[in-house]
UniProtKB/TrEMBL annotation:
UniProt-listed Gene3D superfamilies: Spore Coat Polysaccharide Biosynthesis Protein SpsA, Chain A
Pfam family for this entry, one: Glyco_transf_8
Enzyme class: transferase
Record membrane topology: Single-pass type II membrane protein
Protein name per Swiss-Prot or TrEMBL: Glucoside xylosyltransferase 1
Keywords, alphabetical: Glycoprotein, Glycosyltransferase, Membrane, Signal-anchor, Transferase, Transmembrane, Transmembrane helix
Family according to the record: Belongs to the glycosyltransferase 8 family.
Domain of life from the UniProt record: Eukaryota
Biological role: Glycosyltransferase which elongates the O-linked glucose attached to EGF-like repeats in the extracellular domain of Notch proteins by catalyzing the addition of xylose.
MF GO annotations: UDP-D-xylose:beta-D-glucoside alpha-1,3-D-xylosyltransferase activity
InterPro entries: Glyco_trans_8 (IPR002495), Glycosyltransferase_8 (IPR051993), Nucleotide-diphossugar_trans (IPR029044)
Length: 418
């Protein structure tokens, strides 16, 4: 009998200590915002006394090539006086890469995105380390009425260490960083990537809505490189496979990164499908002597072999000088106006395409809180009328058609003055 009592006591003691151990583990566990193993970082919320935008090193326990700096993020929002945390509103994720002298151009792109968007934005800015302080300083200087519309993270440029130099120099400095977003941003489901020379003339929301149009197999969306195969670059000059009749342009790219990480891609190197991280380097090694436009060419090769994975959106979402330099050839922009302006080939910074430069200068010079019609639209319209000696200038109405509607919307909701 004593033997049974002793056994019962031992079991009871063991159960008590086991319960205490489990409780202590639960008590000390960090709850990650956003799920899927987000990296831990303490970020002071507004009004708590911490410096906004302060850099906090965060990353996995074992060093890896995609370590990053967390500059600004927040979780739920606390109702004033109630102490109850509300679930944060739905967020759109927007990524951009900035290297060299792209700081002002990138900030102007971000300004256009914040100015017009309806839903909250989370900006993922990949930049050389010497640009980080300038990004943080500028973004934190914006008026609260606009600064409250977005959070952001500034990351260091990072490539797989064994081939970092080769990737960084592909086409333009750091441009190929976009290929590695699904591997770096493992906690993010979907994202809009844009080049730094993009300007939004309509809310990012419309582009984000294409995600709901994806078929079960589609995992990315881009626009065609050109509308007319007879004068398109890929159909005339490419020495590698490309998507469709004219290729695709990667300056504006919508990605479902969850699908990209889990999909096996057909290719012309093996008989079996390869995952995204397995595909990139072999593809570069095979085609590096035949590609001209770097990572964009690699994307064309990938989607040439996997066309069912790609959704095409109209050229009005990625309007470039090619759409007007020899006469207007973007039907969707002719009908609805330009939604997203892409000033590739440096046209914002020279006088070869003054209509594109005029839009860039107007948004760059606009002061937050001032009357958007009087301070942005009217001066821009006046400048565009000076560009009618060019083919793109002859289509100047397309540059302001959608912009005017977007400015009407912000004029209704934004108080003037800081």
């Amino acid at each position: 009998m004593r033997r049974y009592i002793r056994a019962l006591l031992l079991c009871t003691v063991f159960a008590v200590f086991s319960g205490l151990y489990v409780y202590s583990k639960l008590f000390n566990t960090d709850v990650s915002a956003g799920g899927h193993g987000a990296r831990r970082a303490f970020i002071p919320l507004r009004g708590t006394g911490g410096r906004r935008g302060s850099a906090v090193r965060a990353g996995p326990q074992k060093p890896h090539w995609y370590n990053r700096y967390i500059m600004r993020q927040s979780g739920g929002v606390e109702d004033a006086g109630s102490g109850v945390r509300r679930r944060p509103e739905p967020t759109m994720h927007l990524a951009v890469v900035a290297c060299g002298e792209r700081l002002k151009e990138t900030l102007t792109m971000i300004k256009s995105a914040v100015l017009f968007s309806v839903k909250r934005l989370y900006l993922h800015v990949f930049a050389e380390d010497q640009l980080h302080a300038s990004f943080v300083g500028t973004l934190e200087s914006w008026p609260d009425s606009f600064r409250s519309r977005f959070n952001y993270t500034v990351y260091s440029i990072s490539f797989p260490s064994e081939n970092a130099g080769e990737w960084k120099k592909l086409f333009k400095p750091c441009a190929s960083q976009r290929l590695f977003l699904p591997l770096i941003l493992k906690d993010i489901d979907s994202i809009v990537y844009v080049d730094s020379d993009i300007l939004f003339l309509q809310p990012v929301d419309g582009l984000w809505d294409f995600l709901s149009q994806f078929s079960p197999s589609q995992l990315a969306a881009m626009s065609p490189e050109h509308e007319e195969p007879r004068i398109a670059w890929y159909s005339r000059f490419a020495r590698h496979p490309f998507y469709g009749r004219t290729g695709i342009n990667s300056g504006v790219m919508l990605m479902n990164m969850t699908r990209m990480r889990s999909t096996f891609f057909k290719n012309d190197m093996t008989r079996v499908g390869l995952r995204w991280e397995e595909l990139l380097m072999p593809l570069l090694q095979k085609y590096k002597l035949n590609i001209t436009w770097g990572d964009q060419d690699l994307l064309n090769i990938i989607f040439h072999h996997n066309p069912e994975f790609l959704l095409e959106f109209p050229c009005k979402w990625n309007y470039r000088p090619d759409h007007c330099i020899y006469g207007s050839n973007c039907a969707s922009a002719e009908e609805d106006g330009i939604y997203v302006l892409h000033g590739n080939r440096g046209v914002y910074h020279d006088y070869k395409q003054p209509a594109f430069r005029a839009v860039y200068e107007a948004i760059k010079k606009y002061s937050f809180g001032s009357d958007p019609v009087a301070s942005l639209l009217d001066p821009l319209t006046e400048e565009l009328l000076k560009t009618t000696h060019t083919y793109c200038g002859k289509s100047n109405a397309l540059f302001t058609k959608r912009l005017a509607l977007s400015l009407e919307n912000i004029n209704r909701k934004t108080p003037h003055g800081r």
